[in-house]
Amino acid sequence: MPDYFDTLETRSPAEREQALLAALPAALARAVKRAPALARQLEGIDLASVTSREALAKIPVTRKHALVDLQPKQPPFGGFSAVDYGEDMPRVFASPGPIYEPQGTQRDYWRFGRALYAAGFRAGELAHNCFSYHFTPAGAMMETAAHAVGCTVFPGGIGQTEQQVRAIADLKPHGYVGTPSFLKIILEKADELGVKLESIHKALVSGEAFPPSVRDWFAERGVAGYQAYGTADVGLIAYETEARDGLVLAEDIIVEIVRPGTNDPVPDGEVGEVVVTTFNPAYPLVRFGTGDLSAILAGPSPCGRTNARIKGWMGRADQTTKIRGMFVHPEQVAEIVKRHPEVIKARLVVTGKVSAEVVTLKLEVSGASAELAERIMASARELTKIRVEVVMGAAGSLVNDGKVIEDARSYE
Q1: pTM score over 0.85
Q2: pLDDT at 401 over 70
Q3: Disulfide-capable partner of 223 in 27, 218, 297, 365 (CB 3.0 to 4.6 Å)?
Q4: Which domain CATH number covers 174?
Q5: Strand partners, 222
């Protein structure tokens, strides 16, 4: 008999749609009262009438990259938070951009519990959590989800690979949570050290692409890896199930696929930007454009869950790019240029395969030198949290196509 996180996952599509849309007017009214940015976004709209997707589509999209501009104008959250510092906001996080995100007090605040459950995690198990606990909410996102499932958590975080291997060998966790690239690094380090890691048979991975080649590499080592897709702002958006056929949408959000750069939903099956409306009372987001591309898949999942599915992450609607689990924004590249007067123009190029990327900062400069390259590398590491190679050329050496970030990775 199929096993589900809760009965919401098997509601009829009509029942789910009716429940979400019926709750929408009250959620919008609550957001307008507490979050000034939502009051601006929804100004002039009859909130009581927003009871259909057609009515929702008339509200302008607020895109993720806009938060980088909006937050400094009304710090710290750009007017989007409905709670203030204190007991209603136990933590604040920072994602690259920077973008600051509040954490509210709801149990399983980012709602990743059902994704962990779908990946096979159960109460009474130990989860080895290798998402970062530093600055970004990723570690806390998965820890609160594991607690919702009933798991104990080892907060491994990132780095210190040999110590990760030792902890896994000693504690024998039932599953891994983190980026797929870091799990691959850990397993390879264990092979190098001659240490058998036989307890981990499942993994929930996120934060970067999870191509079939990496999934199969894990399977050959007895690890069933499942992926979850979400953001620091809205939490879980969709998750993989045993059906291995697209990603099932989360239960308590409204997801639209819109034509990039517009407010207009596209027909099912057409690739567009993932736009999410949440019911989060602490951090309400209405028609929030994630900048990610995907498409709705036809029909229900063979696993028995009845919500709609998306194909998964299919690239970026803008030039913002995720590298090794971290978003890199064009604004960050511009800040590197601003810091170094010798730089005329910059282009960040990502090549190679997922989990083995090469990140190169190509520059037009006046007066190239090794010392300048070192300073620029340090700035890039500080601003993006990613190590880059610097290649300098003369004025006019870069392609004149307007690109600041070029994602040329292989996703096979």
Answers
A1: no
A2: no
A3: 218
A4: 3.40.50.12780
A5: none
